[in-house]
Design brief:
Helix 8 (123-138) crosses helix 11 and helix 9 (161-171) packs across helix 14 (277-291). Strands 9-8-7-10-11-12 form a six-stranded parallel beta sheet, sandwiched between helices. It is of the alpha/beta class. It has 16 helices and twelve strands. Helices cover 44% and strands 14% of the residues. The protein has helices at 2-6, 27-30, 37-40, 52-59, 68-73, 77-80, 84-90, 123-138, 161-171, 186-198, 211-220, 236-242, 253-258, 277-291, 296-306, 311-326, and strands at 11-14, 22-23, 45-46, 49-51, 62-65, 94-96, 148-152, 177-182, 203-207, 223-226, 246-250, 270-272.
Length: 328
C-alpha cells in the first residue's frame, strides 16, 4: 500500500508565502502524528520550529504559485518571508500561473447586486446610473461629471494603504470622489474615518466587507486603485476591468502579469513601478487626466471589458502541468 501511495504525484500551491503553518517542534508527533524523523532530517524544521510549507515545498512533485512574477519574486528575501533558500532549492519545479475570476458571476450585464445592468456597448449610460445611485446611497454629491475612484481592500500595510495615506490630502485637492470599502488594521481604519469627517463631500469610507456593496463600487467607479506593496496575484483588478473600471496598480506580483499600462497605446490601465507615494500620486493624476479625454477614455474602458480574465487560460496551464507529471 505504501508503494502505491508513493506513486501519487502531488502539486503544492503557494497563495501567499507569508502564511507558512509554523508550530512548535513537539507538534510533529503529538499533533500531526508524524515520525520525528521528518523534523530531525530538516524536512519540516525551520529556525527551530515545524514549518509545514517548507515540508510541502520540498516533498511535492511540483510547486505552483498564483503568478509568474510572484514566483520570481519569491527568490528575493524581501518577498520570501525567510523561505528564499527553500525557493532557490526547488526553483526547478516551481511554476507561476495567474488566477482567473468567475466571469459568469462578475458580469455587469447580469449581476443582481449592481444598481443597473450594462454591457460593453452600454457601459457609459450604465456606469452613469450606477454612480448616481451609489452616490445617493453613500450621501455623496450626485455629480455625473466627477471621476470616482474605488477601492475594495483589506486595510493592511502590504496593500499599499500607507501610500494612500501619504497622498490622501493632495488627492483631495482634485475634483474627485473616492469610495473605500474594507477593514483591517486599527490605524488605517481610524485614519480613514477621520478623513471622511474632514472631506465628507469627496470621500466615503465603508467599514467591513459587504459583498453586494463591493460589486456596486466596481460598477459605479471609473477608476480602481490597487497600489499593493506585494500581491501574489490579486483578483480585484481583474474584477474591476470586468466592470469597465480602469485600474491603477503597482508593478508587482500578479498585478504586473495582469494589467498592462496604457502608455504603450495598447494597454488598459495605469501602472507605476516604485513603491513610493509620489509615484502612486503621479499614476492617479495620469488616470484623472485620461478620464477627461472624451476620445481616449472610452477606448480604455472598452479594452478593460474585452480582456479575458476567465479561468480558461489558467485551467489549461494547470492541465498541462498535471499531464507532464503523469508522464514521469
Amino acid at each position: 500500500r505504501w508503494e502505491e501511495v508513493r506513486r501519487i504525484r502531488t502539486v503544492f500551491t503557494i497563495h501567499n508565502i507569508e502564511y507558512q503553518g509554523r508550530f512548535g517542534s513537539d507538534t510533529v508527533d503529538q499533533l500531526f502524528g508524524l515520525d520525528r524523523g521528518w523534523y530531525n532530517d530538516g524536512t519540516l524544521q525551520m529556525d527551530g520550529d515545524v514549518n509545514l510549507m517548507k515540508g510541502a515545498m520540498l516533498m511535492a512533485d511540483a510547486v505552483t504559485t498564483v503568478s509568474p512574477t510572484y514566483a520570481a519574486q519569491l527568490h528575493d528575501p524581501a518577498y520570501a518571508e525567510g523561505l528564499e533558500s527553500v525557493v532557490d532549492a526547488i526553483g526547478w519545479k516551481m511554476h507561476g500561473v495567474v488566477n482567473g475570476i468567475d466571469t459568469d458571476s462578475y458580469d455587469p450585464a447580469t449581476d443582481p447586486d449592481v444598481f443597473a445592468h450594462y454591457t460593453a456597448e452600454t457601459v457609459k449610460a450604465g456606469k452613469a446610473e450606477n454612480k448616481q445611485r451609489l452616490q445617493e446611497r453613500l450621501h455623496l454629491p450626485q455629480r455625473g461629471d466627477v471621476p470616482m475612484i474605488g477601492m475594495v481592500t483589506r486595510l493592511v500595510s502590504h496593500k499599499g494603504l500607507d501610500l494612500v495615506r501619504y497622498a490622501f490630502d493632495r488627492l483631495m485637492q482634485e475634483d474627485v470622489q473616492i469610495v473605500l470599502l474594507g477593514s483591517g488594521d486599527w490605524a488605517f481604519e481610524t485614519f480613514f474615518r477621520e478623513k471622511q469627517g474632514q472631506y465628507p463631500e469627496k470621500f466615503c469610507y465603508c467599514a467591513g466587507f459587504v459583498p453586494e456593496l463591493a460589486r456596486k463600487i466596481y460598477a459605479a467607479a471609473d477608476i480602481f486603485l490597487m497600489p499593493s506593496q506585494s500581491e501574489p496575484c490579486g483578483l480585484a483588478q481583474m474584477v474591476a476591468c470586468r466592470y469597465g473600471t480602469v485600474p491603477i496598480v503597482r508593478r508587482t506580483g500578479g498585478l504586473a502579469d495582469s494589467i498592462r499600462d496604457c502608455g504603450d497605446g495598447e494597454g488598459f490601465g495605469f501602472v507605476f513601478d516604485t513603491y513610493n507615494g509620489e509615484d502612486m500620486q503621479k499614476a492617479v493624476f495620469r488616470a484623472l487626466g485620461a478620464y477627461h479625454n472624451e476620445t481616449d477614455w472610452p477606448v480604455l474602458v472598452s479594452r478593460c471589458m474585452e480582456t479575458d480574465f476567465s479561468w480558461g487560460r489558467s485551467a489549461n496551464a494547470y492541465i498541462r502541468l498535471y499531464r507532464s507529471l503523469g508522464k514521469k
